[in-house]
Amino acid sequence: MDGRGGAGPTHVLVATLGSAGDLYPFLSLARGLLARGHRVTLLGPQAHAAAVEAAGVPFEGVGTEDDYFEVLRHPDLWHPRKGFGVLWRAIEPELDEVAGRIAGRAPGERLALLAHPFMMPAAALARAARPDLRIVAAWLAPTNLRSVRDPLRIGPRRVPE
Description:
Blueprint: E1 11-15, H1 20-35, E2 39-45, H2 49-54, E3 59-62, H3 65-73, H4 83-103, E4 111-115, H5 120-129, E5 134-137, E6 153-154, E7 157-158
């Protein structure tokens, strides 16, 4: 991602969502990329703005702090069958927001996206507008990777093969 042979250096967009447990691994990756001289912007929940800015990483907030804390207070968030629905309904508008921000970058700007797995729908939408977008998904929890030998589980429910 050094930008050789193109229109300037690659701008690495690091996109995450969720709690601090989702944020901090991506923040660490963003800091490492910055330390190696890359241009980096972290796209993440507005509620994490202070932590990202304190780490010295350029930041663009997604959603609102009120929306973030409303999800955390939702009574069904940790319910084994309803929790993912609560989370997904909160994520959907943020996916559109992130996709729009990526797609709306300056034409000709070399972009790479390092994304939380839940950001992959946004990545696909952005790539429709920016076919040159390079995408990397970083999995935080290897237990979420599907396998025919050890299928994915969400709470007590097994995801069908």
